[in-house]
Amino acid sequence: MTRRQRLLSTIGWDGGMPFFVASATGLVPVLAGGHAGAQVVAAILIPIVAALVRTQHAHRQLERRGIRATVLRQILLAFAIAALMLFEGVLAALLFAPGIPPSGWLVAGAMYLVYLALILAALRTRIEATPEGDA
Description:
Layout: H1 3-31, H2 36-65, H3 71-96, H4 104-122
C-alpha cells in the first residue's frame, strides 16, 4: 500500500466514522418515538462505543503497517479519541438540546478537524519506515 493509499484509507475511515455515529445518534429520537431516556442513553453510549471501535481500529492499523506504538503515538491517539468524544458530545447537544445557537456547529466542525489532524499525525509513517520504499 502506497503512502497516498494509506492517507486516503485513514481519511476515509476517520472522515466518515464521526458522521456515521452522528447519524446513528440522530436516528434514536425517530426510532424511540422521541423518548427522552433513549436520547440520553444514545448521547452517552454511542460516543463511548465509537471511541472503543476507533481505538481497536487504530491498533489494527498500527499492527498492519508495522508501526511501533510509541508513547508519543499513544498520547496522540488518546487526544484524538478525546477530541472524537468531544465532537460527538457537541453534536449530541446540537441534535437534542433546544436553543443551541448556530455557532455550535462551528465548535463541532473545529472538534472534527482537531480529531482528524490528531489521527493523521498519530498514524503517520516515516518515509524510511516503509519497507517497499513507496514514498
